[in-house]
Design brief:
Largest interface: A-B, 39 and 39 residues
Order of helices and strands of chain B: HHHH
Keywords (chain B): Membrane, Transmembrane, Transmembrane helix
Strand content of chain A: under 5%
Organism (chain B): Candidatus Wildermuthbacteria bacterium RIFCSPHIGHO2_01_FULL_48_27b
Distance between the termini of chain B: 51 Å
Protein name (chain A): DUF2231 domain-containing protein
Helix content of chain A: over 70%
Number of helices of chain B: 4
Mean pLDDT of chain B: 95
Shape of chain B: flat
Oligomer: heterodimer
Structural class of chain B: mainly alpha
Mean pLDDT of chain A: 94
Keywords (chain A): Membrane, Transmembrane, Transmembrane helix
Radius of gyration of chain A: 18 Å
Number of domains of chain A: 1
Number of strands of chain A: 0
Low-confidence stretches of chain B: none
Low-confidence stretches of chain A: none
Organism (chain A): Candidatus Wildermuthbacteria bacterium RIFCSPHIGHO2_01_FULL_48_27b
């Protein structure tokens, strides 16, 4: 425990966990997208997938937020701003940290939709708007991931 | 619990949250005083915005769920979900273009 917790709180591990949980969120919501396209009668798997996707994004948010406030601000941001690509912070990070705040309400909404029965879902003709909604959430999350890569690259090669 | 009403309320709350995030992001960048106030509330401006979006979403969802709506038509539910998707993309575009413009100034 004495070595585990400091290791868990180290910068590369935090970034890795932030990214890892985001990937879980993206992958599980892509899975959920597939479930809504397939429209199974039994909804239990659909709900589990939505719940895990939400949990992934929540954990990515908490871990990323901790890293951002504790390490990125004082240590990484000055390096990027003084380097060859200051826009990596000024545009990519600033956009990423704010657009991410759209994701959790969207993920919760997708989770609630998963609680509809097949009949309710079909009668409400929600298939297309749900696919567009979840697809958009995934696309936004992927864009955020790409911005994260830009920021990491700018820090590494400054 | 009325699942359709929860979903409808959540969709409207998502729209409210996206408007809040977009507005507070631009406003805080244009007003250092506001940014300092946000930083003072939770220790960091982004942390205050994070808590703020959760509060806006939860409060909006509760408010919309408690509204005495008799029945939510499938059309209203579909349209609100389309609208939420549009609002998210508009918010994304505004935030991205704002920071591009801000950097280029």
């Amino acid at each position: 425990m004495n070595t585990f917790f400091p290791l868990l709180m180290s910068k590369p591990v935090l970034v890795g966990l932030h990214l890892g949980f985001a990937i879980i969120g993206i992958d599980f919501f892509l899975w959920l997208l597939g479930e809504f396209i397939a429209e199974p009668v039994k909804r239990f798997r659909l709900r589990i997938v939505a719940f895990i996707g939400l949990a992934g994004f929540l954990l990515s948010w908490i871990i990323g937020g901790y890293y951002y406030i504790k390490f990125y601000g004082p240590l990484v941001k000055p390096i990027i701003k003084a380097g060859a690509a200051p826009w990596a912070h000024a545009v990519a990070m600033e956009t990423k940290e704010h657009v991410f705040l759209f994701i959790i309400p969207m993920a919760l909404t997708a989770l609630f939709i998963s609680f509809l029965s097949k009949e309710q879902f079909s009668n409400s003709k929600l298939k297309l708007p749900t696919i567009l909604f979840i697809g958009s959430m995934v696309a936004v999350a992927l864009a955020i991931g790409a911005m994260g890569y830009i920021i990491s690259a700018a820090a590494r090669w400054s | 619990m009325n699942t359709i009403k929860v979903i409808y309320s959540s969709v409207l709350a998502t729209i409210a949250a996206s408007i809040f995030v977009t507005a507070i992001t631009v406003a805080a960048e244009l007003s250092p005083a506001l940014k300092n106030i946000l930083a003072g509330l939770a220790g960091h401006h982004w942390l205050t915005k994070s808590i703020g979006v959760l509060v806006v979403y939860a409060a909006s969802l509760t408010l919309f769920y408690l509204l005495p709506l008799k029945q939510i038509s499938p059309t209203a539910l579909r349209r609100s979900l389309f609208l939420a998707t549009v609002f998210v993309w508009i918010g994304f575009a505004i935030i991205l273009l704002f920071f591009v413009q801000h950097f280029l100034q």
